[in-house]
Specification:
six-stranded antiparallel beta sheet, alpha+beta, 16 helices, 16 strands
Length: 456
């Protein structure tokens, strides 16, 4: 199956789960407080829908499933979903209903604290879903990572990192005295927020001073800050080729080329560069240092005309780096999952400030960007991990105090509780329209960025 299609399917499935649970939060509290829910739809349905339990064919086939109050269905516009709650101004903009006398089963007839719970229900369910998924991930797969301070060859850094003092092969030790544990978003946040980062370089601890605009530089660079350096471990050897004639064996780890420390990508790049620069007078003699069963040795060999030595390297990264794995019982996974979810939320919130910078707006992405974070092959671990992360994002974005979002309604409800009077229906209508205009503008901008990245 095509990689793009697999990514798209994962995106649709993930967002469908998140939307149904989000709207299910509003639905749950509405039913709890006996507020009528007229529609519960996955995706939007302007002008028509793909399916509804109010369709005549459905009520004929499943008469016992008929619900006289709520129409459940699927729309044709896959941009989210909604519940239409009677007696409130929402994305449906049903202002005619608001002109009618207030009914006891309407949203507007309920006390403010009940309406507040109805509005935060979606955010609450998304956050709880993320915590549950993180917990079950830890229970099913455990926690597996490479300790940064034990990476044998250190890290490869991008050009922005090198410009401020990092060097390929540096082992990350600490940020402002706080030791690094693992590679990830927390590591990057610690680095950009630090005044200095300590690294281990050639056995000596060195300080790298971090500029205040570090994140803006990284956003402009648009290249991963750092990645692990993998050793060149021989997986197989071609008979009769230079490596075989020199006595190299599968499992040997090549650590030096002509006396210079080297990693997997360094070796490949050096061979390619020598091939491009080669001429009849160029020496093809190489000196390789390798490690076998913990013992280092050196061999000399002569390459062929294409600087090939006849080996294939192992790419099983879990065997090339020191991996720590922690298993969790069912009950132990729950607090660990909660901690992981809370830390993920904190990290995301701390990075939101960069969204409003010049470079941050360029990095804003739409459905293409979201889809690209899923793997090209179906991987349930990655799928659930990214679904939990998107659930955190959806919860946070929806609670922002922007009209048309849940947070906008919450803001007006808090005002009502404090001021002891409701904003007028006309004000709520205008606020809803302004909020929807802002959201559609943001959606268009984000997806326009995706188009620019695709073509340029």
């Amino acid at each position: 199956m095509d990689a793009t299609l697999i990514k798209a399917l994962q995106l649709v499935l993930s967002l469908s789960i998140l939307v149904v649970l989000h709207e299910g939060g509003h639905f749950f509290f509405s039913k709890l407080f006996r507020v009528k829910v007229e529609k519960f739809f996955l995706f939007f349905d302007p002008y028509f829908h793909l399916f509804s339990t109010k369709d005549k064919w459905f009520t004929r086939l499943f008469p016992k499933c008929k619900d006289n109050e709520t129409a459940y269905g699927i729309g044709w516009l896959p941009f989210g979903g909604y519940v239409k709650i009677a007696g409130m101004i929402d994305e449906s903009m049903d202002t005619e209903q608001m002109k009618k006398p207030v009914q006891p089963w309407e949203f507007r007839a309920k006390p403010a604290w009940q309406r507040l719970l109805i509005m935060i229900g979606g955010v609450l369910f998304n956050f709880l879903l993320a915590l549950f998924i993180y917990s079950m991930i830890l229970f099913a797969w455990g926690d597996e990572y490479v300790p940064l301070q034990k990476a044998p060859l250190g890290m490869d850094f991008n050009e922005t990192a090198k410009a401020i003092g990092f060097r390929d092969g540096d082992i990350l030790v600490s940020a402002d005295g706080v030791p690094f544990e693992r590679y990830g978003g927390d590591m990057l946040t610690s680095i950009v927020d630090a005044r200095q980062v300590s690294v281990l370089r050639n056995g000596q601890e060195v300080s790298v001073y971090i500029p205040e605009d570090m994140m803006e530089r990284l956003l402009a660079d648009s290249v991963r800050f750092a990645s692990f350096r993998y050793p060149f471990v021989i997986d197989s050897i071609m008979p009769g080729q230079p490596a075989a004639l020199a006595g190299l064996q599968p499992g040997d780890s090549i650590t030096q080329l002509d006396g210079r420390n080297i990693a997997y990508f360094d070796f490949k790049e050096e061979m390619l560069n020598r091939q491009k620069a080669a001429n009849d007078s160029t020496s093809r003699l190489l000196t390789l240092t390798y490690v076998r069963a913990g013992v280092a040795d050196t061999v000399k060999l002569t390459t062929d005309s294409l600087y090939q030595i006849g080996v294939a390297a192992s790419l099983q990264t879990n065997k090339l780096l020191p991996v720590v794995k922690k298993e969790y019982s069912f009950f132990a996974s729950i607090p660990a999952g909660v901690t992981l979810g809370v830390n993920t939320l904190k990290g995301y919130v701390s990075q939101m400030k960069y969204l409003f910078s010049k470079e941050g707006t360029k990095q804003l992405g739409g459905f293409g960007t979201i889809g690209s974070i899923f793997p090209a092959t179906w991987d349930w671990y990655q799928f659930w991990y990214m679904t939990a992360f998107l659930s955190i994002i959806l919860a946070f974005m929806n609670i922002l105090p922007i009209p048309a979002l849940d947070g906008g309604h919450v803001l007006f409800l808090i005002y009502e509780i404090v001021a002891r009077r409701k904003p007028s229906d006309k004000f709520m209508e205008r606020a809803q329209m302004v909020g929807m205009f802002l959201l559609f503008g943001l959606l268009i901008w984000a997806n326009f960025n995706d188009v620019l990245r695709f073509f340029f």
